[in-house]
Amino acid sequence: MTQIGIIVGSLRQAAYSQKVANVLANLLPVQLTPVFIDIGQLPLYNADLDEDDTVPAWQTFRQQLDDVDGLIIVTPEYNRGMTGALKNAFDVGSKRRNHWKHQIALVVSSSPEATGGFGANQQVRQVLVTLNVFPVQRPEVYLGHVNHLFNDQNLMTNLDTLSFLQTAVNAFVALQAKFDPQPADDLNALAIKYEPGRFYINGENGSTLAEIIFHDQQNKRIMVTNTQVSEQLRGQGIAKRLMLRVIRFAQIYHLTIIPDCSYAQKFLEKHPEYQDLFTTN
Ligand SMILES: Cc1cc2nc3c(=O)[nH]c(=O)nc-3n(C[C@H](O)[C@H](O)[C@H](O)COP(=O)(O)O)c2cc1C
What we know:
GO terms for molecular function: acyltransferase activity, transferring groups other than amino-acyl groups; FMN binding; oxidoreductase activity. It holds the Pfam family Acetyltransf_CG. One of its GO terms (cellular component) is cytosol. InterPro entries: Acyl_CoA_acyltransferase (IPR016181), Flavoprotein-like_sf (IPR029039), FMN_Rdtase-like_dom (IPR005025), GNAT_dom (IPR000182), GNAT_YJDJ (IPR031165), NAD(P)H-dep_reductase (IPR050712). This is NADPH-dependent FMN reductase. By secondary structure, the chain is an alpha/beta fold. It has two domains: 2-179, 3-Layer(aba) Sandwich (Rossmann fold), CATH 3.40.50; 188-277, Aminopeptidase. Helix content is 35%, strand content 22%. The chain has eight helices and eleven strands. The chain has helices spanning 16-27, 56-67, 84-93, 118-131, 159-179, 188-191, 238-252, 262-270, and strands spanning 2-8, 32-37, 71-75, 104-110, 134-135, 141-143, 193-195, 198-202, 208-217, 221-229, 256-259. The strands form two sheets. Strands 1, 2, 3, 4, 5 and 6 form a six-stranded parallel beta sheet that branches. It has a five-stranded mixed beta sheet with strand order 7-8-9-10-11, with helices on both faces. The longest helix is centred in the middle third of the chain and has 21 residues, at 159-179. It is globular, with a radius of gyration of 20 Å. The two termini are 32 Å apart. Bound molecules: flavin mononucleotide.
């Protein structure tokens, strides 16, 4: 399983950076599994304490870096730079050997200001040079006015921003594939797009070739009401991929799924391992 570590530079509970990170996790194709790596528990780096593994949180963090195959780093901007918490994480992970080495990374900054955390983003990229991490060069992602991008359920509703972030995630996926070539997985995984309430694949003329539709219900539930795949895409496991995207969406946003359409019901019968995420009412 290819795991992508997601690191959020803000420790604030209601951080916009966390909301942005959730969106990016949701936009990853299903063959890349997002793993959130918490940096809030890391004591400030002090080389004197780092001689005989006496700080368990540092060891845990280093192991988490070793276990992932790529990184998405979402940074806010504090005083035109990255947060102290994020810089501390870079320092902890750089010792006693460099646990960041040879990773690839997507760097995203955000801010309520129009400048979108440009200073922090550039500072992160500068640190990545010495850590020998390869960032996605373009698109550069500076999200300004981030306080206007989410609805009251913490979902991003602006379709232009979603589409831009999907482009950035696709560039990251392409870079990851270069560093870690795997047997050709079908490219349709990349073509799955997200809009609030649906994952879908469009044909070249804009027609919908496959989609899964889900609706908000009360009490943090979503109802999957329709899954359909056109004739030309059948037999490639597309419906399953769409369903897995909904499952991951539910995991990221702590939701349960009501399987209302026949495909979702059949999927659940075949995959009881996801039972905990489903409810019948
Ligand atoms: C100590 C501090 C310094 C800040 N400096 C900047 C700054 O240089 N540029 C900027 O765009 N916003 C700055 N801000 C505002 C942050 O962008 C804003 O608080 C943002 O919500 C923080 O990100 P978060 O929501 O992910 O926690 C600063 C905030 C704090 C607390």
